[in-house]
Amino acid sequence: MDFDLSEELIAVRDLAREFAEKEIAPTAAKDDKEKTFRGDLVRKMGELGFLAMVLITEEVARVHSAMRVAINMQIGPALTLLQFGTEEQKQKFIPGLISGETIGCFAITESDAGSDVAAMRTTATRDGDRYLLNGAKLWISNGPVTNGGLVYAYTDRAQKHRGMSAFYAELNQPGLTRRTLETMGAHCSPLGELTFDSFPIPAANLLGREGDGFAICMWQLNQTRLNCAAGALGVARAAKEAALNYCNQRSQFGQKIGEFQMNQDLLAQMIAHEEAARLLVYRAAWLADQKRPNNLEASIGKYAAAEAANYAADAAMKILGAYGYSTEFPVERYYRDAKSYQIVEGSSNVQKMIIAQDALGYRKANRG
Ligand code: GRA
Predict the structure, then answer these.
(1) What SS3 string covers 312-357?
(2) What is the best residue among 165, 218, 228, 300 to mutate for testing ligand 1's pocket, by most ligand atoms within 8 Å of CB?
């Protein structure tokens, strides 16, 4: 077993850290307050080849979790096109996504289809050389700003999940209305509802074959879950760093507050949870690099990292007291942003279901 990163990976991580600290961190609090989507930073990350990878995502999320979501919206569709797309689809759509020229998205969730993906109602009906999309997608990251991404819909509802199909859709066209949604955290990651009314998608934009959509969706979620897990590590680390700094600065009752065992207990638990989660996330990423199945490992990593981020944000809030609760300092942002990791990309309960059902022999997690 080798726990060292290669020199190349260390260099990439350090470059990402420098970029995050110089380009994202200085305006993170302002961007969060003003709910600004930073398309310019997405393009800059595209130029640097940053729209990928666990190590980069963690560095970005450490300074601003919402910018990690932006990475996921680019790589999710790009990787899925790479895996399932035709040569023409790859050439036409991937470059825009990885350069950040196209602001990406993936539209799975609906009002009655969150954890239960197969319950979606959106349909894609064949009409000559195109499909007409009808239905409403909810809680779509980048919904208000995206101009292209993946959309999942039923081409044959009677076939249940085997009648679902995946499409790449160029979204700046008539037939789509958007509604912006407000959330507690990740304010620079715009979220929206997309309502499709006979929205046309060229038949050439179908990924794989009709009916492949559910399996494609599960494959895609397995990639984007890993990015999410890496983001949670970044938030856990940011909260821990804030708590450590404060413990070394602040004095009460004549001593540094780090001297108090109750704070040491919180710090030790934050560190142990974060480090354990990091190893699990790196294992899932390493398996992906080896082109080995890693659905189970990605679920374990995502679950552990989401919980570690929430533990750390909560503990940091306890340690910093009013300075944690204050909106003038970043810990309250970590706290708000951490919460999303227990909800998105398969809630913590969905991950636990995948993990436990695999262990019980009910449903194998690693299927391909
Ligand atoms: O045998 P079959 O032909 O019937 O196929 C079954 C199975 O083999 C069928 O799907 C196949 N399948 C898979 N194929 C390839 C299942 N899993 C996989 C896989 N991993 N790879 C049906 O299987 P099933 O087990 O009966 O499915 P189910 O019970 O309907 O659903 C399973 C499950 C709950 C795990 C799934 O629906 C799921 O993952 N739900 C969570 C949804 C989710 O993660 N949503 C995220 C939305 S996007 C988002 O959050 C954006 C956030 C942005 C950000 O912050 O980054």
Answers:
(1) HHHHHHHHHCHHHHCCCCCHHHHHHHHHHCCCCCCCHHHHHHHHHH
(2) 218
345 is a catalytic site residue: yes
* One domain, residues 227 and 353: yes
Instruction: Give the Å distance between the CA of 119 and the centre of ligand 1.
Output: 11
Ligand 1 cavity residues, CB under 6 Å: 69, 72, 108-109, 115, 117-118, 141, 161-162, 214-215, 218-219, 221-222, 224, 228, 295, 344-346, 350, 354, 363, 367-368
Residue nearest to atom 56 of ligand 1 (CA): 69
- Each residue's pLDDT, cut to its tens digit, for the chain (368 residues) gives 888 999 999 999 999 999 999 999 999 999 999 999 999 999 999 999 988 889 999 999 999 999 999 999 999 999 999 999 999 999 999 999 999 999 999 999 999 999 999 999 999 999 999 999 999 999 999 999 999 999 999 999 999 999 999 999 999 999 999 999 999 999 999 999 999 999 999 999 999 999 999 999 999 999 999 999 999 999 999 999 999 999 999 999 999 999 999 999 999 999 999 999 999 999 999 999 999 999 999 999 999 999 999 999 999 999 999 999 999 999 999 999 999 999 999 999 999 999 999 999 999 999 86
Query: What is the total count of domains within the chain?
Result: 3
Of 68, 99, 130, which residue constitutes the final position of a domain?
Answer: 99
**Which CATH number does the domain housing residue 299 bear?**
1.20.140.10
Answer with the one of 168, 197, 214 that is the final residue of a domain: 214
Find the domain containing 266 and state its range.
Answer: 217-360
Reference 169, options 142, 144, 151, 188; nearest CA is 151
Instruction: State the Cα–Cα distance between residues 30 and 32, nearest whole angstrom.
Output: 5
211, two tokens: 């009916």
**Which two tokens mark 332?**
């309250």
